[in-house]
């Protein structure tokens, strides 16, 4: 067994990583001038939003299969009031993330605040399994782990997101909204619109930050390891969590070792999200790091990771692979069915970059040509921009959010 880990780690290491991994001399948390308030690491999203003077609402929905999901809403900007017909911006987080990621940087920096101040009614979804949606009518996430965590992003896409969207539209009396997704929040958008095409009509436009559909060319060492180990699955599950995704610190540390300096970066080196996606010190506001670490990882099912791992291996964008017999039973075919990107006919704008471990340019280009209604793809004007910078990058408002908002404004004219 030990031999197997070492062999896997060597294999992954040998495949190398050409990205900039300049994370030495990183953090002197005490030297910052504008320090974030350490309390923010522990506040829940509604308390955080309220603390900074914004109106917040919490809504729960029970999905058709019993998950209790939480939506967070900022109905208007600071010093504004809500009026009917205010355009809706629905924001869907990525893997291991939550609504927290859009408010953690604070007013004038976090996407949720910027959207609210720009005139939008902001709704943030929380997918099943994250800390705000780790709840079910009849299943307990710990005592009934096998049943509770038996989902991938397919279920998030065909159940959670459409049911949250219906709730938002019903609550506001509107018929359409803007959808902004990050990472897995883009995957779930494409799947929703292809598997339940009637939802295309409910979307004014969708903005993909770090689009994820095809995964063949991604370079994340952790995901690569999982995809390589998919054959020895039982062994791997012991390391990353059988049902709920919870890799041990020791395992994560081993994977991040090639690029992490353990003396300075211990928390980053063992944080699942950073190990998965990498770390870009140029865009990281050091005083925010402890706050970010307080809010992520926010929880996910192991199956979500395994499903992505299958995509890396197969090169397809398709439903979960249950093996020959399982597929025959579930889909009536040997292979899982592909998602039909042509059916995504809502207008889509893609934002991507060249130092993103998960969203590789080649894969984005393929997605762009296959989607039913691609409007534009925009390369972020920073060669080192990485997957997580869309949420917390110092220049995210300037390089990404303002562009999204100006496109939205044009569409409202
Ligand atoms: C870093 O974060 C702190 C706390 O939110 C904020 O006051 C400061 O302006 C941020 N710095 C940059 C460069 O964004
Ligand atoms: C869903 O969860 C929320 C928050 O914990 C709780 O207040 C609510 O009662 C739950 N809804 C149902 C129907 O169980
Ligand atoms: C919202 O849903 C309720 C209950 O399902 C329904 O009665 C109502 O007409 C809906 N409102 C709108 C604006 O769609
Ligand atoms: C980490 O790697 C060391 C060898 O380099 C190995 O002994 C240990 O079992 C590994 N730990 C995990 C959790 O994979």
UniProtKB/TrEMBL annotation:
Presence of keyword Ribonucleoprotein: no
Gene3D superfamilies on file: alpha/beta hydrolase (3.40.50.1820)
Protein name per UniProt: Lipase
Record gene name: LOC108559894
Family classification: Belongs to the AB hydrolase superfamily. Lipase family.
Xref: Pfam families: Abhydro_lipase
First and last residue of the signal peptide: 1-16
Organism: Nicrophorus vespilloides (Boreal carrion beetle)
Domain Partial AB-hydrolase lipase: 45-104
Classification of source organism: Eukaryota, Metazoa, Ecdysozoa, Arthropoda, Hexapoda
Keyword terms: Hydrolase, Lipid degradation, Lipid metabolism, Signal
